[in-house]
Amino acid sequence: MSQLTVIANIIAKTESIELVKAELIKLLAVTRAEEGCINYDLHQDNQAPEHFTLYENWVSRELWQAHMANDQLAEYVKATEGAITTFTLNEMTQIS
Amino acid sequence: MSQLTVIANIIAKTESIELVKAELIKLLAVTRAEEGCINYDLHQDNQAPEHFTLYENWVSRELWQAHMANDQLAEYVKATEGAITTFTLNEMTQIS
């Protein structure tokens, strides 16, 4: 098992920026307490406030996948239904 | 002065992946030793190896701008001329 970096980019609809931000913030403490989570940091773009980035490192892809199946994430998806324009997710390896 | 997160996405031409990777790696130690650099971490996409991401945190935007004007970065730009397809850079604020 090797460490996994995940970079998630979430673009909120302009009228839903604060809703999406609040829902993303709700995920932080719960996720950071999960098995295998090294860091889970939320950012907002300075020029485009509708753009949020989660920068995540996990002990293994398996433990990240367990996180992806959890209840909190399902609640986030439900709460932000119709509020997101685009969502992309990249699985990466930290070179150094 | 507030802390700045920078996310740089570099897409290399398929035939230049190893060249670009080597040049990016050369930047790491020098940059990490610069004033104001909190972290400067290089990643490669697991599905698209031509995609590199630098995840950076700086003490202030001013110190990041001083970094952007340094000789090492100018050498990187020269060495990777013609080897990059796209380059994007986002200035962000870490919410938590």
Automatic annotation (TrEMBL), chains A, B:
GO molecular function, one term: monooxygenase activity
Domain of life: Bacteria
Domain ABM: 4-92
Coiled coil ranges: none
Keyword Transmembrane helix: no
Keyword S-adenosyl-L-methionine in annotation: no
Gene3D superfamilies for the chain: 3.30.70.100
Keyword line: Monooxygenase, Oxidoreductase
InterPro entries: ABM_dom, AI-2_Isomerase_LsrG, Dimeric_a/b-barrel
Name of the protein this chain belongs to: Quinol monooxygenase YgiN
Organism: Marinomonas pollencensis
